[in-house]
Amino acid sequence: MQWNALAEALFGPHHGLKADGDLVLGTARLDGAELTVIGTTHHAAIGVHLALAQAHAVLETVRSHPSRPILLLIDTQGQQLRRRDELLGINRAMAHLGLCLDFARRQGHRVLGLVYDQALSGGFITSGLIADACYALPEAEIRVMRLPAMARITKLPEAQLEALSHDNPVFAPGVGNYVAMGGVQALWQGDLAQALRDALVHAPRSDERAEAGRARGGRRLAAEVVDRVLQAA
């Protein structure tokens, strides 16, 4: 789905959002209440400029619009793989974006993520996965690492990882697997505006992803490990 079609489905034809290159930004209204919408499009590669532009929008919302909800519309191929961005400190810029979103949450802002097209790697980790809750459209594509790259990192044969991916969501891409692991709270289908209304009310305010993964069978041991670490602390 294109970002403007999504915006219209969520907020109506006069949604107030605009795209500037790969950045989607604006103030939208839902049932008379304002939301800050910050998003990316064109399978954006998140470089220093785009990460800082999003962070600025988050901080401006905290400064000028206390407690206003923030909705992140996510379509990214991950971080920008360019020497220029690496030299400028892309890791720090993306970490800054993540910290700004966490700061907004601590200041009372609801922060929700919606993957509407593609979500890969670091561009997803520092946006949707840092939100209070992340949702996705059924046709969206989510993955953090392709199996060939995973094979190089883990030193396991790609065929073995392929076999594991059939039964274990941790090794497999796809929105259904991320729901099973707890990384995605739920899929939005049908009335998207109503789905947003429900999320603004019912989205968890604490990190329940490990528990959700255990309950859904996608990450069976994460919650147990967290519990053991907390007991030992």
UniProtKB/TrEMBL annotation:
What InterPro entries does its record include?
Answer: ClpP/crotonase-like_dom_sf, Malonate_gamma
Supply the Pfam families for this chain.
MdcE (PF06833)
Domain of life of the organism encoding this protein: Bacteria
Protein name stated in the entry: Malonate decarboxylase subunit gamma
Per the UniProt record, the source organism is Sphaerotilus microaerophilus
- Whichever gene encodes this chain, its name is mdcC_1
